[in-house]
Amino acid sequence: MFENISQNNVYKNLINGKWVEAKNKNTIEISSPVDGKFIGKLQALSKEEVDEVFEGSRKAQKAWADTPVNERSKILHKAADLLEENAKELAKILSREISKDLDSSLSEVVRTADFIRFTADEGMHLEGETIGSDSFPGFKKNKVSLVTRVPLGVVLAISPFNYPVNLSASKIAPALVGGNSVILKPPTNGAISALHLVEIFNAAGLPAGVLNTVTGRGSEIGDYLVTHKLVNFINFTGSTEVGKHISEISKMVPVLMELGGKDAAIILEDADLEEAADNIVSGAYGYSGQRCTAVKRVLVLDKVADKLTALVSERVKKLKVGKPEDGGKVTPLISNKSADYVQELINDALDKGAKLVVGNKREGNLVYPTLFDHVTTDMRIAWEEPFGPVLPIIRVRDIDEAIKIANESEYGLQASIFTKNMDDAFYIAGKLEVGTVQINNKPERGPDHFPFQGVKSSGIGSQGIRYSIEAMTRLKAIVLNIK
Ligand code: NAP
Ligand code: G3H
């Protein structure tokens, strides 16, 4: 199934329907974060090749937009079936490439097949409306506005390392069903998995040029892609730093951005503490904390703080640490640089007097799950996104102090509230400056047809199947004037 995408572990790009190597022969060597072993080489495309990709995409988009949506949808259904058939193989590749535990790797792929199928169906229900003129003062029934949705054109999709399959497909599928062509710039760590996904779309029968890829380091080719004159929409997921940079240079091109987070879990006195602890631990340490929606701080009412800390600590000690192939759940981080950053935050918390409950052990890029209690707001870990397995517990006096600290963050992705009192839950939920509030559950993106959005430095716009299709299409009105 995947024989065309590489030769001797040298991976190619899909450009105008063909898997090709870069003309300049520039490549990037990729090794596994699990053990540093070589896994393949990627092409680093030149600016001239990027121009070719954009021109091909633009041309292909016109015919794709004219293709009936039921045919576009059929191709996506086929892609979902192929992805499911190849899920185990792709999960193994993903697990080695980004050091994700095997169960989570498989669930990422299966969830993606479900996502594509749901999108194929949702695209069939993209309907417009007719609006009569007589509801506006001074007008009679002499005009009708026929409002439909039309594609934007060429969508540039840029995905991050932590979900290279799911967060590539969550841009590609809604864009395609809406009649756009797509250029995918996958993350350098994660590109091999993403290229497999792209071959699945290709094999499902997409016409040449409708889906293309550009590999290469974002720091080298990113600005050129983002500011290209033929780009019509940028759908980006990644760090706030890169997201802000892109939104500064992209000027009038519309963007959808999913960025960093510092999701708080707020624990009230009447919470089911066992349930809260289960959610906190799976939320904070799943994929070693490398999830945008990870629980990245706990704000707990003083009265139950000792008990909660003990329950969380008990669970953290049981987490299996090690390589994915040995059943590790907390696995080596994506790079040494990431582990250095996490260590910096740990050291700062220790220096400023936080109480280390578990962890602060490291072997290269493997950081053991670390839990701090009595974290205070002068510590970096109270505010920065570690993207690693370290969790601060901040004790608060009352609900209003929890809300205040939660909202002082520059981020606003999600937050959780654990309580049995729905009046309190709704009071807090109403005050939190985030895209989504979870009551009695950890922050999480799914189910993937729910709207998913960050506010403040966590993003711009809403994803989620229908919302993504709407974001990558626009309204077009034709006004019928009746004599
Ligand atoms: P990143 O370093 O910002 O990279 C994201 C993507 O942007 C990669 O494909 C990267 O390519 C590319 N890139 C880098 N510089 C670029 C530029 N100047 N122009 C265009 N593209 C450029 O983020 P990451 O480390 O992969 O992902 C972790 C971050 O993503 C965390 O902050 C996390 O919270 C956030 N995230 C947010 C969500 C959400 O839904 N809100 C979901 C997942 C992740 P290279 O890989 O080649 O550098
Ligand atoms: O990393 C960001 C992902 O969008 C989070 O998805 O909540 O399902 O892990 P998740």
From TrEMBL:
<dbReference type="InterPro" id="IPR016160">
    <property type="entry name" value="Ald_DH_CS_CYS"/>
</dbReference>
<comment type="similarity">
    <text>Belongs to the aldehyde dehydrogenase family.</text>
</comment>
<dbReference type="InterPro" id="IPR029510">
    <property type="entry name" value="Ald_DH_CS_GLU"/>
</dbReference>
<dbReference type="InterPro" id="IPR016162">
    <property type="entry name" value="Ald_DH_N"/>
</dbReference>
<dbReference type="Pfam" id="PF00171">
    <property type="entry name" value="Aldedh"/>
</dbReference>
<dbReference type="InterPro" id="IPR016161">
    <property type="entry name" value="Ald_DH/histidinol_DH"/>
</dbReference>
<feature type="domain" description="Aldehyde dehydrogenase">
    <location>
        <begin position="19"/>
        <end position="478"/>
    </location>
</feature>
<dbReference type="InterPro" id="IPR016163">
    <property type="entry name" value="Ald_DH_C"/>
</dbReference>
<protein>
    <submittedName>
        <fullName>NADP-dependent glyceraldehyde-3-phosphate dehydrogenase</fullName>
    </submittedName>
</protein>
<dbReference type="InterPro" id="IPR015590">
    <property type="entry name" value="Aldehyde_DH_dom"/>
</dbReference>
<feature type="active site">
    <location>
        <position position="258"/>
    </location>
</feature>
<keyword id="KW-0560">Oxidoreductase</keyword>
<dbReference type="InterPro" id="IPR051020">
    <property type="entry name" value="ALDH-related_metabolic_enz"/>
</dbReference>
